[in-house]
Write a structure and sequence with these properties.
Elements (H helix, E strand, L loop, with lengths): L5 H14 L2 E2 H9 L7 H17 L4 E5 L5 E3 L4 H9 L11 E3 L2
Length: about 100
C-alpha cells in the first residue's frame, strides 16, 4: 500500500478535529492505522509536519488538561508531540496534547 500523502494526512487530522477535540494518540492511530511497518518512520514525520503546520497556521488549536479538569489551549511543542506519538500505545490523556479547531 502506498504511503499516505501529506494532503491525506492533513485531511484525516482536520476532519476529526473539526468534529470534536481529539487526543494526539487518537490522531496518530487514525493516520498510522493502514501504514505498513516499513512506512512508520516516514508517516510519523509527515504527521508531525502536518500537525505543526496546522497549529502554526491557526487551523488547529493545541490544548491540554488544566488544573480544574477542563481542556484549555496551550503552547504547542513539536518535540513533546513527537514523544507522545512514540508512546501512543499507552497514552496519558491528562498530560498529552488534545487538538481541536476552536
Amino acid at each position: 500500500m502506498p504511503i499516505q500523502s501529506t494532503e491525506n494526512v492533513k485531511a484525516a487530522v482536520f476532519e476529526l478535529c473539526s468534529e470534536n477535540d481529539y487526543g494526539s494518540w487518537e490522531l496518530w492511530w487514525k493516520v498510522s492505522a493502514d501504514a505498513e511497518a516499513n512506512q512508520t518512520a516516514q508517516i510519523r514525520e509527515r504527521f508531525l509536519d502536518v500537525v505543526s503546520e496546522l497549529v502554526s497556521g491557526g487551523k488547529l488549536v493545541a490544548k491540554a488538561h488544566a488544573a480544574d479538569g477542563e481542556i484549555a489551549s496551550t503552547r504547542f511543542d513539536r518535540a513533546k508531540l513527537s514523544l507522545e506519538v512514540d508512546s501512543a500505545g499507552n497514552p496519558d490523556p491528562e498530560s498529552y496534547f488534545w487538538f481541536g479547531t476552536k
